[in-house]
Design a protein that fits this description.
Elements (H helix, E strand, L loop, with lengths): L2 H4 L10 H9 L4 H8 L3 H9 L8 E3 L4 E4 L6 E2 L15 E3 L2 E5 L5 E4 L7 E4 L16 E8 L2 E6 L5 E5 L18 E7 L2 E6 L4 E7 L11 E9 L11 E6 L2 E8 L7 E2 L6 E2 L21 H8 L2 E8 L4 E5 L6 E5 L5 E4 L3 E3 L2 E3 L4 E5 L15 E9 L4 E10 L7 E3 L14
Parallel strand pairs: 21-25
Antiparallel strand pairs: 1-2, 1-28, 2-3, 4-5, 5-6, 6-7, 8-9, 9-10, 11-12, 12-13, 13-14, 15-16, 16-19, 17-18, 19-20, 21-22, 23-24, 25-26, 26-27
Helix pairs in contact: 2-4
Length: about 425
Amino acid sequence: MSPTEDAPRRSWSELSTDLAGEIFGRILCHADRVRFGAVCRQWRISARRNPLPRQFPWLALPNRTFYSLPNSAFRRLPLHLHRHRQLPHAQSSCGEWLVFQHHDGAYTLVSPFSTATTMVLPRMPTDPSVTHDTPPPLQKLVVCSPTLVAAVVGTRPSQLLLCRPGSASWSCRHDRLQALEIQDMVSYQGKLHALVNSGDLLSISISEDDDSHAGGEPTVSSVDCLVRISPGRRTEPPLYLVESDGSLLMVRKENHSTREGSYSDDDESYSSSDEQSNVILNPDDDDSYVPLYSAEQIELQTKFEVFAADMAGSRWRKVRSVGGDRVLFVGHWCSRSVHVVPDVHQGKAHNIGDLIFFLQDRGADGYGGQQWRTVEFFCTIYDMRERRSQLFLKTPLRPVGSLGTWLFPPSGRAAGMSEHC
C-alpha cells in the first residue's frame, strides 16, 4: 500500500479559520463568496468573521441578465414587481439598488442581493411651468441613509430633490441650486457633494429635523462651493464624482464627443486642443441591423483624466494614478472605487489595480436612435499606467431606455445571502 493510501483523508472543514479567511479575502466575485460560505459551517463562520473590502460589482443589462465581475457568465435576474415596469425597463441603479418605476410614477428600490429589502419613493413632482403632467426625467439617485434619499431630475438646469422612503412627496428648494446642471453626486462625510457641469464641486448640508422620523421633510440648510473653476478653465462632461480611499475624485472621460479644451499632461492648466474629432458613421435608416463598429472604435480610443479635490486650495489636482490597489467603476447611474488585493505569483506581489472600468453612457454616440434594435454593448477598461483602453466585454442587446448599469453588493453580507445564480 502506498504512503498516500495510508494517509487519512482530511475534511475541508479542518482548514484553519485564519487560512480560510485569507482565501475568502481574495475572492472578488459576489457569487463565489456566497458559494464559499455554503461549503461548511466552519467556512461560513470564517467568512462572517473576516471583514471584506468592497466587492467587484455586477453589471446589470436591459435584457434581464447580469454579469458578475471579474469573470462570470451571463445569468438571468429573477426579479418581478407587480404593476411596475419590469426589466428591461428598470429606471436606474444606486449602489446595491435597482430602481423600478411604478405605473403611477412612484419608484421602488429593490436589492437583487436580498429581494426582501425594498424602499418605496414617491412620484417626482411636475414642473408648474409645463402644461403637461409629465414628471421630469430622473438623472441620478443617491441613498444617503435608510431615512434619506436624494435625486437629481431634469436637465439644463437640473433640480435636486430630497425625500424619506415611504413619504408622500419630495422636497427641496434652495436658491443656489436652481440654475445648475448637476453631473454627478455622492454622499461623503455626512454631506451631499455635487459635481456640476462646469467642474465646480459643491458641499450640500441637509437639515435633519427632530420630527424627521414622524414625517418631517428634509431640507437643504447650506450650500458651499469647495472647488471653483474659473470660466477660462471650464471642463466638459461627461464627468464622474467618486469617493476613493477618503478622497473625492473627479473623473473626466475624453473621447470624440468631448469638446475642445482639456487639462494638459504637463501642468494643471486648461488648454485648447487642435485635434479634430473622430467622425461618427451613423447607421442607415432602414430596418436592417447595422454593426456599430464606430461605437467600438470610439470606446477603444477613450481616455480618462483624474483629479483629486484639494479642499484647502479650492482646486482640482491632477493625479496620474488611482492607486495600485484601487479599481474605479464609472457609469452614468453609479460610480465606485473598489479595493483590490495584490496578486501573488511565485512569491512576488503584482498590483492589479490602477484601472478604470467604464460603460457607454446613456445616449452614447454611435447608436443613432437604435434603441429598439439589437446593438453591441461594450464594457471597457482604461489602464492608468499604459494610458490606453482595452475591450473587456462585448455583447449584443437592445438598449431599451438604457445600456447597462453597475450594481455593488453591500459590504459584509457575502455569506448567508440568497444566490441569484
